[in-house]
Structure to design on (220 residues):
């Protein structure tokens, strides 16, 4: 073995053990972590062969990486205060935590909104219809939208959050850009149909509204 190879291996071993110890310190309380680190030092000291030490270090590094990953993926139990927060979409007085950044990609995170069980389901149905090409979710979402039981402003809010998530995922390159467009939303959720139908229901037909009044309202 050349001197250069030996140096590279020593650096690799040091980095491996440093990562292992960092993981131990991240996953355990201070006192326990130092005990574990000490016992690893003891184990490494009994192995003269660098290859053996690296095999051991690699095994435990992978073990602790997995534990860290599992901890990261664990959903935090919602607090009472969160559960008793009104639904952000419809106002129902109890709610679930919905992750706008999904847990699979980000682990437990604070980018959440509170949605009641119904709005929460609708959110996931819409998302799956738009992003996962799920015919099952699309059929259910269309059924809910056609039922006349969801207020248009509620459905609009749920859709807006859905699109916020999709846009974020588009920006990260995880999802194709067309999936947040109006065309796609119309195609998958018949959104303009829903808007037209609910608009004619909630507003009496304008009888003699004059065109003059448009002067003051310049916003789009
Ligand atoms: Zn709701
Ligand atoms: Zn959710």
């Amino acid at each position: 073995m050349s001197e250069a190879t030996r140096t590279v291996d020593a650096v690799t071993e040091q980095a491996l053990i440093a990562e292992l110890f960092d993981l131990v310190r991240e996953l355990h309380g201070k006192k326990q972590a130092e005990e574990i680190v000490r016992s690893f030092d003891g184990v490494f000291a009994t192995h003269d062969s660098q290859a053996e030490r690296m095999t051991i270090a690699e095994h435990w590094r992978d073990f602790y990486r997995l534990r860290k990953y599992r901890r990261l993926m664990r959903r935090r139990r919602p607090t009472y205060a969160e559960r008793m927060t009104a639904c952000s979409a419809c106002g129902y007085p109890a709610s679930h935590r919905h992750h706008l950044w999904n847990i699979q990609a980000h682990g437990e995170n604070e980018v959440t909104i509170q949605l009641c069980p119904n709005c929460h389901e609708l959110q996931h149905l819409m998302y799956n219809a738009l992003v996962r090409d799920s015919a099952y979710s699309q059929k259910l979402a269309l059924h809910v939208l056609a039922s006349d039981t969801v207020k248009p402003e509620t459905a609009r809010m749920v859709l807006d959050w859905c699109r916020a998530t999709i846009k974020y995922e588009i920006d990260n390159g995880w999802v194709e850009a067309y999936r947040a467009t109006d065309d796609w939303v119309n195609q998958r959720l018949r959104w303009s149909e829903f808007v037209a139908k609910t608009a004619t229901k909630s507003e009496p037909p304008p009888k003699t509204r004059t065109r003059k009044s448009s002067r003051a309202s310049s916003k789009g």
Q: What stands out?
A: Residues 87, 89-90, 92, 115-116, 118-119 surround zinc ion (ligand 1) (CB under 6 Å). Residues 212-220 have pLDDT under 50 and may be disordered. The CA atoms of residues 90 and 130 lie 22 Å apart. Residues 3-72 form one domain.
